[in-house]
Amino acid sequence: MKKLLITGASGFLGWNLCQLAKQEWEVYGTYFSHTVEIPGVTLLKIDLTDFQEIKRIFSEIQPAAVIHTAAQSSPNFCQSYPEISHSINVTASCNIAGLGADYSIPCAFTSTDLVFNGLNAPYKETDSVSPVNLYGEQKVMAEEGMLQRYPMTAVCRMPLMFGIAPPTATSFMQPFIQTLREGKELSLFTDEFRTPVSGTTAAKGLLLALAKVHDRIHLGGKERVSRYDFGRLLVEVLQLPAAGLKSCLQKDVKMSAPRPPDVSLDSSKAFALGYAPLSLREELEALRGKV
User: pLDDT for 148-160, tens place per residue?
Assistant: First the structure.
């Protein structure tokens, strides 16, 4: 089996990707602050902001491909700590693309739907970027820097993701479930729209992009949904207590980072390549009893 290097294995997406990729690859996963164990995957503790460490890992493993999912993905954290987040989100990403070029291997990178300002959805790959927060800005810088270093990179713009998570991470769904099960109030936006997919579907999309895509690709789901309507479906399918679910508007909640209203992705380019997200109901039904 060929060797695949996956950064960010202790994160939600990286962990889901490792589960799927290990069926076809000899997988090496990196983590930094959260120790994780994944049967069948070799885990390596590494500081991706240290270029010499990344270089050493490439030299020792000699990977046949790399998928870079590691990031500081909290928009509020990035807004408050721009230098720390820049070092992992931009500098490390560009260094990994440079090493991908040095080794002439397939390279995929996870960007975000938050590169857009949310005023002209749904967004295609060719639409101009206009992030409203620092996290989105850093991902734009990483996209451009990586493609300059290595034009063969697959830059995968990811939507909101949900599903089974490792002990070291959560998707946006886990806090929702916990809050409702505890009988507490959960207020969700009726005016923020995304095109969510499960972690498993996202992982399939990344492996597809790794094999078939150079340049940018959108890996969103097929349904545009508000956070509140997603919450309603979650309550129905997973049979959660509904009493605490309330609707609110973005302006009702004070946050460090501004949020765009609608960053729904047009992923028809990926669908044409064989990317096939299920409906949100089917995705959630598959999780019943597991979350």
Answer: 999 999 999 999 9
Write the class of the CATH domain 170-195+224-264+279-287.
Answer: alpha beta
Below-70 pLDDT ranges, the chain: none
Residue ranges covered by each domain of the chain = 3-161+197-218, 170-195+224-264+279-287
Q: Is the pTM of this model over 0.85?
A: yes
- Residue-wise pLDDT tens digits, 196-208: 999 999 999 999 9
Burial of 193 (0-12, 13-18, 19+ CB in 10 A): buried
What is the CATH code of the structural domain delimited by 3-161+197-218?
3.40.50.720
Pick the closest to residue 57 from 17, 4, 110, 101 (CA basis).
Answer: 4
- Work out the mean pLDDT of the chain and round it to a whole number: 97
Q: Give the Å distances, CA to CA, from 248 to 162, 183, 222, 251.
A: 21, 18, 24, 8
> What does the DSSP assignment read for 104-168?
T--EEEEEEGGGS-SSSPSBPTTSPP--SSHHHHHHHHHHHHHHHH-TT-EEEEE--EES---TT
